[in-house]
Design goal:
APC family permease; transmembrane; 21 helices; 72% helix; 505 residues; globular; mainly alpha; AA-permease/SLC12A_dom; APC_superfamily
């Protein structure tokens, strides 16, 4: 059933009534496809895991398990709150209802910079990955810019179509990229690895090493976007059940799958040899392993599937951004034109067009500056995006116990206090690890890294300034920001309206 968000009067820029998102379109598996595809498992494994092995040694698989456990703890409070706060704004709505509207508006801007940064930078990866694939398979050198621009149009079209169309596409692409990694793992297990299979990767002596901190930083980055399950609640079937299930499935799958794949690659080379192999040719580590244990044809296929993995990630993030844009337009924060929904496809198509145009502007600007598509467009744009989303996770974790102190509920203290507080501590640690190892992500100078990290607090402060301006000049919009929508019949728990109005007055 369509969700109708009560909006301010015409003077405050509320969107006119019209077509709505397709409610009841997505099941648990569909939402999980969006989330796992955004993480781009094949790209993360083949492109980043060799560096984790190089820095952390054979204990690297445990880093992915620890990151997964941390985010599973976060998901406890996050999904509990999702049953009470039903806004399409996800993160910023949670933060608003817990920590106040002014913090929530700051979180809204962080969400925009975070998700846009995570998507737009990846167009550089699309260009560079396609270059590598065509060179490896055909010996041809393809310019990256036309590939990235073609990707923008393709992803724009995917976002224009219905959400169930996107879910079907992602289901196929995700099955392909995880399938090739599973094939590699099966080949290693069947042949017994280089010297037989061992579990030395999981012993304390191999985990508690100085490089583990760097591995954890890479591991947390590998889960980016998992929390976007809540963004799709307005299109989910029975969101009170499908959203939490999809969240837990995504976290569990990514944590276990990442750790398993990294462990099998270590077995492919041997405990004593894998670090040297990763240092000699990190970009070729997975291709060498699959050539040895499966065949050269599988390595060629992996090259192709890395490109499709990147496309899947782009489509998943594009859909998430569009829905944030729609929600913020409905709130009156963004232009009301962005709240238009396509009458046939049920997609936030105007927000999608705006995001595609923004992506094209950024990509063309980097190209005009002669930037490297991987080392600069990808890494410099992704980094503040990743930090922004991690900051949002921390704010959401802090918001949970505060929110549940204000409302009448029947949730347990483990879900509403213990888990979110533990998650906040762990996420704070993760943010510190990432910032202190930022040079590993960017390969840039200290000055560039400082600038990239500073973007996140600068955007948040800009959000606080916007909130103060709205409170003075647009009080109607401010007062109704992240207000509770009418969503009858979903089975969600209903929080106290009086407490909601107190949150962030």
């Amino acid at each position: 059933m369509p969700v109708t968000t009560p909006g301010p009067g015409p003077a405050e820029g509320a969107p006119a009534a019209g077509p709505s998102l397709r409610s009841g379109s997505l099941g648990t598996a569909d939402i999980a496809f969006f989330v796992v595809s955004a993480a781009a498992p094949l790209t993360v494994m083949a492109g980043v895991a060799p560096l984790a092995i190089l820095l952390g040694g054979i204990g690297a698989p445990v880093g992915y398990l620890l990151a997964g456990i941390t985010l599973a703890v976060f998901a406890v409070g996050f999904t509990t709150m999702s049953r009470h706060v039903r806004s399409g704004g996800a993160f910023y709505a949670f933060v608003s209802r817990g920590l106040g509207r002014h913090i929530g508006i700051g979180a809204a801007l962080l969400a925009l910079i975070g998700y846009n940064g995570m998507e737009i930078g990846v167009y550089g990866l699309l260009g560079s990955a396609t270059q590598d694939t065509t060179h490896a398979l055909f010996g041809a050198d393809v310019p990256w810019l036309p590939v990235s621009l073609a990707g923008l149009l393709l992803i724009g079209y995917g976002g224009y179509r219905s959400i169930d169309f996107g879910a079907k596409v992602l289901g196929v692409l995700l099955a392909a990229e995880t399938g090739i990694l599973a094939l590699l793992a099966a080949g290693v297990l069947i042949k017994g690895g280089a010297h037989g299979l061992s579990l030395h990767s999981f012993t304390p002596g191999n985990v508690l090493v100085p490089g583990t901190a760097a591995v954890l930083a890479f591991a947390f980055a590998a889960f980016t976007g998992f929390e976007s399950t809540v963004i799709y609640r307005r299109e989910a079937r029975d969101p009170a059940r499908t959203v939490p299930r999809a969240t837990y499935i995504a976290v569990a799958f990514l944590g276990l799958f990442y750790a398993f794949v990294v462990w099998t690659v270590i077995q492919a080379f041997g405990d004593a040899e894998v670090v040297e192999a990763a240092g000699t040719d990190p970009a070729g580590l997975f291709f060498s392993a699959i050539t040895t244990y499966v065949g050269a044809w599988a390595a060629d296929l992996m090259h192709v599937l890395i490109v499709t993995s990147v496309l899947a990630s782009l489509l998943a993030f594009h859909n998430a951004i569009n829905r944030y844009g729609l929600a913020l337009a409905e709130e009156g924060i963004l232009p009301k034109a962005l709240a238009r929904v396509h009458p046939r496809h049920g997609s936030p198509y105007v927000a999608g067009i705006a995001q595609t145009v923004l992506g094209a502007v950024v990509v063309l600007a980097f190209a005009a500056a002669g930037a490297d598509p991987y080392g600069q467009l990808l890494l410099w744009v992704n980094t503040p995006g990743m930090l922004g989303l991690m900051a949002l996770q921390l704010l959401a974790a802090l918001a949970v116990p505060v929110y549940f102190r204000r409302v009448s509920h029947r949730e347990g203290v483990l879900r509403t206090v213990v888990a979110p507080v533990v998650a906040a501590v762990l996420l704070s640690t993760a943010i510190v690890l990432v910032i202190t190892h930022l040079d590993l992500f960017t390969g840039a100078s200290a000055g560039v890294n400082t600038l990239l990290a500073a973007i996140v607090p600068a955007v948040f402060l800009a959000g606080l300034a916007l909130a103060a301006w709205l409170r003075r000049r647009r009080p109607g919009i401010y007062a109704r920001f992240a207000s509770e929508p009418t969503e009858a019949g979903t089975g969600d728990a209903t929080a106290s309206q009086t407490a909601a109005s107190r949150a962030g007055g």
